[in-house]
Amino acid sequence: MITKRIIPCLDVKNGWVVKGVNFAGLADVSSPVALAEYYSEVGADELVFYDITASSDGRKIFTDILRETAENVFIPLTVGGGIQTLGDFERVLSCGADKVSVNSGAIADPSIIKNAAKRYGSQCVVLSADVARVGGRFTLFAKGGRVNTGIDAVEWIKKGVADGAGEVVLNSIDTDGVKKGFDLEMLRAVCEVADVPVIASGGAGSVSHFIDLFKTLPGVDAGLAASIFHFGEVKIPDLKNALAEAGIPVRRV
Amino acid sequence: MIAIVDYGVGNLFSLRASFAKIGVETTVSGDPDLLRAADGLILPGVGAFGDASEKLRASGLDRLLCEEAGRGKPLLGICLGMQLLFEESLEFGRHRGLGLLHGKVVPMRGKIPEGLKIPQIGWNSLHFVKPSPLFAGVREGDFVYFVHSFYASGCEESLLAVTDYGREITAAVGLKNVFGCQFHPEKSGEVGLSVLRAFAQLIGNPGRASAPSDYPL
Q1: Is the ipTM of this complex over 0.90?
Q2: Rounded to 10 degrees, what is the CA torsion of B121, A15, A74, B12?
Q3: What's the confidence (pLDDT) of residue A24?
Q4: Is residue A236 domain-resident?
Q5: What structural domains does chain B harbor?
């Protein structure tokens, strides 16, 4: 039986893993390569590397780290952050990424989804969306959650999937960093329109939040989190054991 | 030396890196002379069957692969590379494969229960149908990583392992020296590495245990 995936996300800046709480107040955690190897060994099903560097020097450091990780870690690796062109896809795929996540880049140029899916296959294209409630509507935000685009997020995701996105990461700005659980209401709305895997992000604070997520929304395929894993507040083997006891299929190593 | 067949399809970074990790030397090449000289061949592949089989045919590598496999050289197809080993595929039309194994590649759509997503993306468990040297380091029920919308059908003769995605789905095949995995061994952690190591052992290259982490936490 196909298993629910647990995905640690590593935000990488200037060669180090950081984690923003509500996207602000960055603090170094560890070496990305070391952390990736650790997660792979303890049973993470996949990893997301998010490049939050702005400078070209930083880009180079990031791709060097990505290559070193992909030479040592043999689970699927998704890369996001600063993906704006097919050239960016090429840059990270050639350094060992398996999937590429587009967010603001797709808002600036929606054709990137179609073009990337055509060139690299849908399995390679992940649509990542930062979404918050504005006046009762799920609204798409750009630039790491700083810019309200005014776009209806559910419609946006529906279109992205139709254009060829092979997976969707839904990051709720409303629950991100709050650690009170995933945004089940928002995720339900997205699951109704997306017939590709949906990855829940934002709000996980404990093991029980993952159980709630998969029990309440069978359409969600994976749960993604960062700081609770980095700081050891939730340990992946414990999480997998608890999920299995709750009757949720997981892969245990 | 194992040669990874380069015919312009798919990302070969991880495949090369995973063999390097287990201490097995590989070369990535589309050069017929080099492929003929290799002790074993890996046929990778991601994307559409029609495109891939057309590329193999245009480069003449289809004949080369059939000749080398016919001479007994170990060949491992991965994902789309496994599907190409069969006689034909019904992916967007009807396309001819290499015909090294009996069977055809058919869509999951309509064949699996409603509510299961297509493609199958994620970790699913292997269930053995027949013993194989390819599974030297794999246990019944071990998890491997799949990404696919089509699967091999009518391949009882070569069927080695299945996975359960609403129905039994071909996960690995093998007949004499020709092997295939629908899953991605290069993305399936230690289990996947053990499949690659077992393939290397078929050509007399034992490899080594994967290096322990250089980064203790």
Answers
A1: yes
A2: 80
A3: 38
A4: yes
A5: 2-202 (3.40.50.880)
Decide if A223 is inside a domain: yes
What is the number of domains present in chain A? 1
d(CA B171, CA B161): 5
Q: Are B88 and B133 in contact (CB under 8 A)?
A: no
Quick check: is A221 catalytic? no
Q: What is the pLDDT of residues A173-186, one digit of tens each?
A: 999 989 999 999 99
Residue A252 located in a structural domain: no
Average pLDDT in the B63-75 region? 97
The gap from C-alpha B37 to its chain's centroid, in whole angstroms, comes to 21
Domain that holds residue A58: 5-245
Using alpha carbons only, give the angle A124, B44, B201 rounded to the nearest 5 degrees: 130
pLDDT at residue A99 tops 50? yes
The pLDDT tens digits of the residues spanning A118-176 come to 888 888 999 999 999 999 999 999 998 999 999 999 999 999 999 999 999 999 999 99
Q: How far is B101 from chain A (nearest CA, A)?
A: 26
Mutate to test the interface with A, among B51, B79, B147 (most CBs of A within 10 A): B147
Distance in Å from the first CA to the final CA of chain B: 35
- The single residue listed with the structure tokens 């590397």 is A49
Query: Is there a catalytic annotation at residue A163?
Result: no
Half-sphere exposure of A250 (CA within 13 A, CB side): 28
- At B3, list the tokens: 């040669």
Would A240 be classed as within a structural domain?
yes
CB A98 within 8 A of CB A138: no
Please state whether beta strands B120-125 and B143-148 pair in parallel, antiparallel, or not at all (unpaired).
Answer: antiparallel
Any chain B CB within 8 A of the CB of A41?
yes
